[in-house]
Write a structure and sequence with these properties.
Elements (H helix, E strand, L loop, with lengths): L1 H21 L2 H4 L6 H9 L6 H4 L20 H6 L15 H4 L11 E3 L16 H11 L13 E3 L6 E2 L10 H6 L10 E5 L1 E2 L18 E4 L13 E2 L28 E8 L7 H5 L10 E6 L6 H4 L4 H8 L4 H6 L1 E7 L7 H9 L2 E5 L18 E2 L8 H6 L3 H19 L2 H13 L10 H4 L20 H4 L10 E7 L10 H10 L4 E8 L19 E5 L4 E4 L7 E5 L19 E6 L6 H13 L5 E2 L2 E7 L4 E5 L8 E2 L3 E5 L1 H8 L3 H10 L3 H13 L4 E3 L20 H16 L10 E2 L24
Parallel strand pairs: 1-2, 2-4, 3-5, 4-6, 6-7, 8-9, 8-10, 10-11, 11-12, 13-14, 13-18, 14-15, 19-24, 24-25
Antiparallel strand pairs: 15-16, 16-17, 18-23, 19-23, 20-21, 20-22
Helix pairs in contact: 7-16, 13-15, 22-24
Protein name: Exostosin-1
GO cellular component, one term: endoplasmic reticulum membrane
InterPro entries: Exostosin, Exostosin_GT47, GT64_dom, Nucleotide-diphossugar_trans
Length: about 775
């Protein structure tokens, strides 16, 4: 009996402990009852569950206090537009739930809706200059398609950049316009670009004036509370004069890079006397000392600033007028980037371009392209609530880190933020990497030069095969080279023909892997027996322009046939399957280089695999009399072009040339049947920001007996000069860079025995 009592006591104790541990209150409100019934029960006098008695984190003074990302004022929350209207645009959207991947499996193409027809008054909706630049960048790119059935993404034809209802660029009746779009489908696979949302006084972030539904927002001034992570894309705020293409390069020069400048920290801008965004800028005068810290503001903006001014406005205005903004940018180590009425600021991109390290004072701001760009390498964070700590923060940063931060500002500016075109294309590439079957570039690729836009992941399985990654990763190019000979004249083949001699010379090179002949001449292909013996070197001949394609194995004559389509001089830069080596030796049929010259140029290229290395050099210059770029073959003290008639380069540039360059550029080459070598030089210099490399001092590299050469045409240089200016216009700047460097072999031209020299034949040719 006593044992039974003990067992009963233990059972009751365990039951009580279990009841207390698992929460007896759950028994009072059944979990199976609807939430609404639970609330009604509580209202009728029932006990409210403890978890419903807890205050909402949204009502706290500092909702994200531990993160240090959100201003703790009620105004800050209002600015973020935290209300139920966010649900109306698909707040739970993810790529898996709000995006149709099946539209993107074949190609990643973008359809732009045509302009809306004129209304009854003969007027069309306003389109701002910046939105027109966005549309132009897309329509003139490889992303664009005019066929909506082939599109992966859709871009609105109506301007959505400025959704401030007080703005002159505000487009009205957007909901009804969206409803008339034939492919809207609640925004699925659509992308909406926006710079400004909301209006006075709260500037609510999600106040667009229409329901974006399942559309991806590419938006400036996005907050951590409103962004749909992995779906929306945060973009930078840019001004109305922002360039369509390229734009100004970064202001930092490699030979003028001091760690410390005249001012340690600087800011010059508007001060808001009251309203959202005023707290931070109203306090900046506490940091201003007029020596190494210059932070000046003005109340002198807006129509009624005098009625709203406070006691400090006059003093602030006088101090503000003492400093020039551009001078501050160029002479400051750090630039303060405080929030304005919205989280983003024009100061951010201006600081990046100037190489002035941004110090961010905008809690909760999602930085542009934050999913890909590691901003810790280029910016400093501060907290709006701890403004007085900013001087100590910037003074504590070492000179080594300042140097690295400033370098990274230039990389990011030039690769992603220097133009509207780059911002739009970066947005597309971020979305493209979310597709299930598309390769994802590494963080190293995104955060180092030349950046993700110029690193096509479809080229190879690993970025280590890219020419600009070889040296940084301690790797070397794969051995040997493929000689690609472009035949445009097609003289009769024989032992005395320039092409015959050239093939014979190449076969003697110790580094050649195979020879590929691109036959673009009108003459028929030479017979098999006419070609020189290549012994162990495979020879492949491809007849361009709808003729025959010929392949050959090692030691055999040309065999096999396939068909190529329309001829173009750009076909010399197609990434042919026969090219398996990293190095490509591009040659014209009448080149007269000897074997030592080929081998020496190849050894130089292996040390500079990201550049063009070769013999014939040309130069560009600015002609003030014509207000245009000039092109010359005269020998000067510099060069900026190495012609691909006798040059080495990495095969990746064939892939870029064919799959990345603007179709406008390729069309220019095709129409002129000229300038493809200049375009290749511009491409490589655009990627590397480095000049080509010339080897030895030979002047002539052409067989002078070839009388039909197009280079003998007197209009040749006029045409090439025209091409050069067209290319610069499409790039948006002049990528070519001048150089005075020339690579010569050891003991070159030294008065010693020729037997002591490694490349003996080089000095036997005339220069």
């Amino acid at each position: 009996m006593q044992a039974k009592k003990r067992y009963i006591l233990v059972f009751v104790s365990c039951a009580f402990l279990a009841y207390a541990y698992f929460g007896g209150y759950r028994l009072k409100v059944s979990p199976l009852r609807p939430r609404r019934a639970q609330h009604e029960s509580a209202k009728d006098g029932g006990v409210q569950p403890p978890y419903e008695q807890l205050p909402s984190f949204l009502d706290q003074a500092d909702p994200l206090g531990p993160l240090g990302h959100l201003n703790g004022s009620a105004g800050a929350l209002a600015a973020l537009g935290h209300n139920d209207s966010r649900r109306s645009r698909g707040s739970e959207c993810r790529m898996e739930t709000c995006f149709d991947f099946t539209r993107c499996y074949e190609q990643f193409l973008v359809y732009v809706y045509p302009p809306e027809p004129l209304n009854s008054l003969g007027a069309a909706p306003p389109t701002s200059a910046n939105y027109q630049k966005i549309l132009t960048a897309i329509q003139e790119s490889r992303y664009h398609t005019s066929d909506p059935s082939a599109a992966c993404l859709f871009v609105l034809g109506m301007d959505t950049l400025d959704r401030d209802s007080l703005s002159e660029d505000y487009v009205r009746n957007v909901p009804s316009r969206l409803a008339r779009l034939p492919h809207w489908n609640n925004g699925r696979n659509h992308i909406i670009f926006n710079l400004y949302s909301g209006t006075w006084p709260d500037y609510a972030e999600n106040s667009l004036g229409f329901d974006a539904g399942h559309a991806i927002l590419a938006k400036a001034s996005m907050s951590v509370l409103q962004v749909r992570h992995g779906f929306d894309v945060s973009i930078p705020l840019f001004h109305k004069q922002f360039p369509l293409r390229a734009g100004a390069t970064g202001s930092v020069q490699s030979n003028n890079f001091p760690a410390n400048k005249k001012y340690l920290l600087a800011f010059k801008g508007k001060r808001y006397v009251h309203g959202i965004g005023s707290e931070t800028r109203n306090s900046l005068f506490h940091l201003h000392n007029g020596r190494d810290m210059v932070l000046v503001t003005t109340c002198r903006h807006g129509k009624s600033w005098r009625e709203l001014q406070d006691n400090r406005c006059d003093e602030d205005n006088r101090e503000y007028d003492r400093y020039d903004y551009e001078t501050l940018l160029q002479n400051s180590t750090f630039c303060l980037v405080p929030r304005g009425r919205r989280l983003g600021s024009f100061r951010f991109l201006e600081a990046l371009q100037a190489g002035c390290i941004p110090v961010l004072l905008s809690n909760a701001w999602v930085l542009p392209f934050e999913s890909k760009i590691d901003w810790k390498q280029a910016a400093i964070w501060a907290d709006e609530r701890l403004l007085l700590q900013v001087p100590d923060i910037v003074r504590s940063i070492s000179a080594e880190r300042i140097f690295a931060l400033r370098q990274q500002t230039q990389v990011l500016w030039e690769r992603y933020f220097g133009s509207i075109e780059k911002i739009v294309f970066t947005t597309f590439e971020i979305i493209r990497e979310r597709l299930p079957d598309y390769p994802v570039r590494s963080s190293l690729v995104w955060n180092s030069s030349p950046g993700a836009l110029l690193t096509l992941p479809t080229f190879a399985d690993s970025s280590r095969f890219m020419p600009f990654m070889l040296n940084s990763m301690g790797a070397e190019p794969r051995h040997n080279y493929t000689a690609v000979i472009y035949v445009q004249i097609g003289a009769a083949m024989g032992p005395n023909a320039a092409l015959y001699k050239l093939v014979k010379t190449i076969t003697k090179s110790q580094f050649v892997d195979r020879i590929l002949v691109l036959w673009a001449a009108e003459r028929p292909l030479p017979l098999k027996k006419r070609w020189p013996p290549t012994y162990h070197i495979p020879l492949h001949v491809v007849a361009l322009g709808g003729n025959t394609r010929i392949g050959a194995g090692a030691g055999a004559g040309p065999t096999g046939q396939t068909t190529e389509e329309r001829p173009s001089i750009s076909q010399r830069f197609v990434p042919y399957d026969e090219i398996q080596t990293d190095a490509v030796l591009s040659l014209d049929e009448d080149a007269i280089l000897n074997t030592d010259e080929l081998d020496f140029a190849y050894t130089v290229w292996r040390d500079f695999p990201e550049r063009i290395v070769g013999y014939p050099a040309r130069a560009h210059f600015w002609d003030d009399s014509k207000n245009a770029w000039g092109y010359t073959s005269k020998w000067t003290n510099y060069y900026s072009i190495v012609l691909t008639g006798a040059a080495f380069y990495h095969r990746y540039y064939n892939y870029l040339y064919t799959n990345w360059l603007s179709l406008l550029l390729l069309k220019t080459v095709q129409q002129s049947s000229n300038c493809e070598d200049i375009l290749m030089n511009l491409l490589v210099s655009h990627v590397t920001r480095k000049p080509p490399i010339k080897v030895t001092q030979r002047k002539g590299y052409k067989d002078r007996e070839t009388g039909r050469s197009p280079w003998n045409d007197p209009d040749h240089f006029i045409q090439r000069q025209s091409c050069l200016n067209t290319f610069a216009a499409v790039f948006g700047y002049m990528p070519l860079i001048r150089s005075n460097l020339r690579m010569d072999p050891m003991l070159y031209r030294d008065p010693v025995s020729n037997l002591r020299k490694k490349y003996r034949q080089i000095e036997l040719v005339g220069s």
